[in-house]
Amino acid sequence: MKQIYTYGSYLKDKFGVKVYKVGINVSGFTCPNIDGTVAKGGCTFCENDSFSASTDEVQELKGFHLNLDSTENPFLDKQLEQLKFQFEAISKRQAKEYGAKKFLVYFQSFTNTYAPFDTLKALYEKALSFDSVIGLSIGTRSDSITRETLDYLSTLAKDKEIWIEFGIQSVYDETLIKINRGHDSANVKEWILKSKKAGLNVCGHLIFGLPNETEDMMLETSRAAYSWGIDSVKYHPLYVVKRTALANEFNRGDFKPISEEKYLDVLLKSIQMKPANVSVQRVTAGIDDDSLLAPSWCRNKNTQIKSINAAFKTIGLKY
């Protein structure tokens, strides 16, 4: 069996030790399709409250949200404290449980370039100052990054491992409108190409099973994303959670989730057309709590991975 080229393998080959991503949730960040800049409510599949900080030590700054036009940030010190607290707690656990030696700080929840440049610079530099941190991975949207931020990240990339993660989701504008994305596919392509030109590593997120999409459409999204030069990919099935617009569609009978069989079929075909240099960061997704409405096969990750590896075995691959 041939091992799929994973992101972990890429990092181990480059740095010689186990490198783990430390997922961070900094209060005050939001998205332009939540705050009304381009839309309201967020993507139809997104349960926005799930991104909120919930620990006693790190309380969400209620009612405080930044955007690209914010002129001040009175809570920057609090955000820096959150960053430090979360990094220390998570990296310590990853080192103990998984033998992680070095880390990438992953700005994960919401849109992590959607804030004033001075705030971003302070957070990124704080993250890079932590012991054993070799770089950043920044989750964002293509309509929420400025040229100034991109140029700054390009400077950091000369000495650090800098990744930017874009939600591509689909290359079909009718789908992006349907899920209330707030930007078109041309915008994603534009900023992926700009990011690559700036010397950044790019991870693209692809969702299979979006409303009204056929297998050919899903595979065309994969094909386009690879052609734009992404360096890594995350594959997600679309699942339905409570308190979302998609949940309303599902409950009305207007949306039918992708079956496990169809997801596996599309995943295998997408993997087979993937360029060899593109690493894989994720092959599925789901949630194992009572917020999941459908499909039930997205509940247990271990079961999903077993099914995926069984499918991969038929084409001589393993994950």
Task: Write a concise keyword list for the protein shown above.
319 residues; alpha/beta; pyruvate-formate lyase- activating enzyme; seven-stranded parallel β-sheet; two-stranded parallel ribbon; 10 helices; 38% helix; globular
Describe the structure.
The chain is α/β, with parallel strands linked by helices. The protein has one domain (2-318): tm_1862 like domain (pyruvate-formate lyase- activating enzyme, Alpha-Beta Horseshoe), CATH 3.80.30. The chain is 38% helix and 18% strand. The protein has ten helices and eleven strands. Strands 2-3-4-5-6-7-9 form a seven-stranded parallel beta sheet, sandwiched between helices. It is globular, with a radius of gyration of 19 Å. The model is unreliable at 51-58 (pLDDT under 50).
